[in-house]
Each structure stands twice: as C-alpha cells, then as structure tokens.
Amino acid sequence: MSEQAYLVLVALGEEPRHGYGVVQAVRALSDGQVRLGAGTLYGILDRAVGAGYVEASGEVVVDGRLRRYYRLTPTGLAAVRAETLRLAELAQRARRALGAGPTTGPTTGPTTGLPALGGTS
Amino acid sequence: MTRTADGSFARSARFWLRAYPADWREERGDELTAVLADLAGPGARRLDARSVVGLVRGGLAARWRVSPPLLPYLGYMSMGTRVAPAYAAWAWRDIQRPHYRWRRAARPNGAVVIVVGSSLLSDPRLALGWAVVYAALGVAMALLVDPVRLRRNALVQHLGPGPGRAPAAGCVRVAVPRRRLRARDGAAVLLGTVAACATVWSVTAWTTVGWFGSVAARDTAVPRVLAAALVVGLVAAAVVVGCHRTSLPDPPEQPDRVVVRLQPQAPAGLALVLLAVVATAVLEATGILDAPMSLTGAALSTAMLPAACVIWLRARRTADDGRVVAADLVRGAIGRPPRVEPAQALWVMP
Fold first, then answer.
1. Could you tell me which CATH class the domain A3-99 is placed in?
2. Global pTM value
C-alpha cells in the first residue's frame, strides 16, 4: 500500500467523504506534505473499490457540481488498521535501531534528540 | 454529461478526460470534473499542467487496468481469440462501441502480417501488392457483411459458451431471430465475384508468359486447363440442378428467421473485390509475383461459374419469406435440404 493510498483510506476511515474532501483531509493528515491530484486520487479510489476496501455511499449536487461520497468497507477498515499497526511497529523498530545503534560523526550530546515518530497512529 | 463547472473550464476538463475509457468517463466524468474544478479554485479557465499530467497518467492507468494483458490483447486484436473471463466485460464494451465492423476491418490480421512481412524481405513491391489486396478485401468485407450479424457472431465467440467453456460471468442469454441473407442478394454476390475472378484471371493467364517461361508453353497449358475446368464446372452445375430438385421442393417455414438484404454500400464492396483480383493480376503480369496464380484462380473460378449461374437462376425464383435464403441454396447445392433453424442464442451483459 503506497503512502498516498494509505492516507486516502485513513481519510475515509474517519468519515465518508467526497473526492475533494479526501484531497483536503489527506493534506491535513500529512501536515501539508501530500497534495493529491484528481488523476492520482481516482486511480487510488478505483483500485480501492476494486479491492473491496471502499464503496460509494451516495451522491449530492452542490452548486451544480456532482459530489459522490465514498466510505470504507469493513474489509477496508481492517486493512487500514493492519497497515497502521505495521507502520507503528516499523516506526518503533526504527526508533530502537537508530536509538541503540552507534552514532556516526561527532555528536553534541546524548542520543535522545530524535523526534517522536509515528505520532498519528 | 451535465454541466458541472462553467464553460471553458468544463470544456478543458472534458478534453483531457478523454484519456479515460469511455465507460469510465460515462460513470465518473462529472464527478472528476467537479473535483478538478474544486482543486483549481474559482475563476480557473482551464486545467493547469500538473492536473493535465495527472489526468493523462490516471486515464492510461485506468485503460491499462480494464484491458487484458499484452499477449491476450494481441491475440484478440489479430486473431479474434477469446480473452480471459476477467476481461469479458472489456470485450463486451469493445464489441458494443460504434463502428465495430470498421474497427474489425482495421485490425491487423495475423496471417496478413506474416504474408506481407515475409514478402517484404524478398521484394517490397510484392509486399505492397499483398497489402493492397488485403486492404481492399478487408474494406470489401466491412461493406458486404451485415454489421448486426458481425456483432452477434463476435458476442457468441467472446461471451458465449463453447466446447469446454462456460458463458462469461455476468452474461444473460437472449434468443433472437437469426439474420439470413436474401437468396437473390447472396447469389448475385457469388455470381458477380466468381464471374469477375474468372474473367480477370483468364485474361491474365492468356496474356502473360511469366511463370510459364515461354509463349509456346503458355499456349498449350492455358487452353487445356481452362477447358478441363469448364467441363468440371458443367458437370458440377448439372449435379447442383439435380440436388436442388431433390433438396428444395418443399422448404419448411422458418419462424425464427429474419431475411436481410445486402448493405446499401455492397456495390462498392464488390468493386473492391474486383480491385483485389485485378491487383493480383497486375502483380503477376508485371513479373513481381512469380507463381501461376491467375491460371489456378481462373481454373477454380471457371469450374465454379456454371454452378454459380444455376444458383443465381434458382435464387430468382425464391420469395422473400425466408423459406429459402442464400445459405439454403448453398446447402441445397450439395443435396442437403433446409432445416428449421432455431433462434440464435446470444450472451449479453445486462
């Protein structure tokens, strides 16, 4: 699962969203780092719908613009939870490895200066 | 498609959305246009470069996802082989899209590629000649065949059941009356084609030394071969007359049959068949093709000509009620009486 796909699933796990809503939520989740284009977003949605992770949950027309909402299916929720767990464990292992491993180059103090990773899980 | 964003932006989005497959656009185009408009912000008149690149990439990826892998795709395109069941919906959409007969005519046939390709190695003029012949015959077929029937046959081939295979998943069976070419029309095409072949190839054989090596060799071979062919043809015609007499005296009612006529463009198709025959004659007369093609063709078509005349005369006496169609005349020519045809079973996607 790519980072973008993961973020889309997390955004939909929070609540059902329409396409533009997903783009905004992903931007907020990634702290402004990930700006999805429409082509990328719909590629991810297509694959997620194909995999049974996501389903359409109705549509509304706002200001003459069609907005179709998408929501996570139970399978999708399980998948995104498993991925979150995997990332959290990965981050933990990474922190251990980097914290315990030998430091390279001159250090200015004890190796406690790493910021906390995986804060969003 | 409803208007989702104002004027020029929607036009720009619609243009770039063509990167996506047509049915994808049909289903999600409005929604995607709305997202593009939201992303672009108010007052945008066209898509920015980044969105365009994203759309083209996304569209190609969407096409890639729904179409079969390369080898099955090439097999489907060049030889009409069936794609895996997972892609049956793709084949269904391909057959349903407009201008199917022209798309079929434009597809490179595997045998054509081999013949043209191998002659390209020996003589480019020969390759060009064969390419002209096949192109003319391809367009002629598209003009002569019944497009509805061509589509139906493709549906049976790609979605229907066959030996050792089930109908494609998600298909439903419908029964439709079988479309059969009117006897008079089919007989006219047969006679016209055979007569054109016999004339063009006989004249070529009579006038070209080419493969024979000498005028004397030609002048002994050609009359004998053609005379023998004519004798065979007359015997065959007599047999056909006898067979028709026994096989077609009382044809049955055919409730599940629709009689169709030739396409209005059929004369152009016949002209192209003639062009293809003339092209082979030119290839031989100019020495580019070093084979007794015209003599072989002249012998075969001369042998068929009397029987084609008999079938044509018999077809003129049939009514348009579907009891006797072109296919019955051909079956009847070898003594097989018409059978009551069942309706045609088609598999379609709801």
1. mainly alpha
2. 0.71
